[in-house]
Write a structure and sequence with these properties.
By secondary structure, the chain is mostly helical. The chain has helices at residues 32-62, 79-85, 90-118, 126-134, 141-152, 158-165, 179-207, 211-219, 224-235, 237-252, 256-261, 273-282, 287-317. Residues 12-25 have a biased composition (Low complexity).
Length: 318
């Protein structure tokens, strides 16, 4: 007769399984935070060296008597800021820069939006026209200004000769000879050069609008004008805001086109704010007043950009 051995498994207490020992923490240079700092360090160094340090130097110059060829002669604040407002060219330059900014911004955004709507659909030839409209943007602004300076020349330029051959004018046309013609000729250059660039930004925004929204509006009987006002423009608002921001900032900092085409003439009628900074620094050899004017321009740009961003945020929340 066999006797079963007693079952000891039920009586014996279970030994809890040992948890694996926690892995050793990696060295600090292998942590995600260290890697993030390493990736951001080159950009931070670049911004510090090429933006923050020059900005601090300009701020110091704006508060000091700082001739170009003599160096820092000590603090003279706020003399530089009062001197720039007392200049005979200061307020005319402000008015002309604002006028130029308004005209260029309105013309560029209207033309760029029209071009984007024309080439929005994928139809035969649309890619060709997109390329053609964008090609002037690949040309440098200084090169484009020199090109138009040759085109506008009343003696050697082809535009004046063409108008004479067509019988539209009897004498050579001076496109840059009067304040109004110089302004409009420069605006035409800028619109020709940058319309394709802004068209591309708006085209990307248009292509992000779902086609289902347009189809639903057409099924409800909405006209083209109603679709444009109620669907296209509201959904295109971020792209329009970006174009507005870039256009206003670039126009307020206009320099190359007027320096090459008009040299600020005729009779200092096309002097921009940045040209005034150039004159103070390199013609009057006064870095102090040039730096003070630069600080004022920077403050105005920051204020305008902040207002535009706030307006865009409020529009999105509404």
């Amino acid at each position: 007769m066999q006797v079963k051995a007693p079952d000891r498994t039920a009586a014996e207490p279970r030994v809890p399984a040992r948890r694996p020992a926690p892995a050793a923490a990696p060295p600090w240079w292998r942590s995600r935070r260290a890697k993030g700092l390493a990736y951001a360090a080159p950009t931070a160094v670049f911004v510090a060296v090429f933006f923050l340090l020059p900005l601090l130097l300009v701020g110091q110059m704006s508060l000091s008597d700082w001739p170009l060829l003599a160096g820092d002669r000590g603090v003279n604040a706020p003399e530089n800021y009062t001197d720039i407002t007392g200049s005979t060219l200061f307020w005319p330059a402000i008015r002309f820069t604002l006028l130029y900014t308004v005209i260029v911004t309105a013309a560029l955004l209207a033309l760029a939006l029209g071009l984007a709507l024309l080439v929005q659909e994928s139809r035969p030839g649309a890619g060709f026209f997109r390329t053609v409209y964008f090609l002037p943007s690949a040309l440098g602004l200084a090169s484009a200004s020199l090109l138009f300076w040759g085109l506008y020349s009343p003696t050697t330029g082809p535009l004046s000769r063409l108008l004479e051959k067509l019988g539209l004018v009897d004498d050579p046309v001076s496109f840059l000879g009067t304040p109004n013609s110089a302004l409009l000729s420069t605006v035409f250059l800028i619109v020709w050069k940058f319309a394709g660039f802004y068209m591309l930004i708006l085209l990307v925004g248009l292509q992000r609008i779902p086609h289902e929204v347009y189809e639903a509006a057409r099924m409800d009987g909405a006209s083209r004008g109603q679709i444009f006002r109620s669907i296209t423009l509201p959904l295109l608002r971020p792209s329009l805001a970006l174009c507005l921001l870039l256009c206003v900032t670039g126009s307020l900092l206009a320099f190359d086109q007027f320096f090459i085409l008009t040299k600020g003439g005729p009779d200092n009628s096309t002097v921009t704010v940045v040209q005034l900074i150039y004159r103070e620094a390199f013609q009057r050899l006064n870095l102090g007043t040039a730096a003070a004017l630069s600080i004022v321009v920077l403050a105005v740009l920051l204020l305008l950009n902040a207002l535009q961003f706030r307006g865009l945020r409020n529009a999105d929340d509404s």
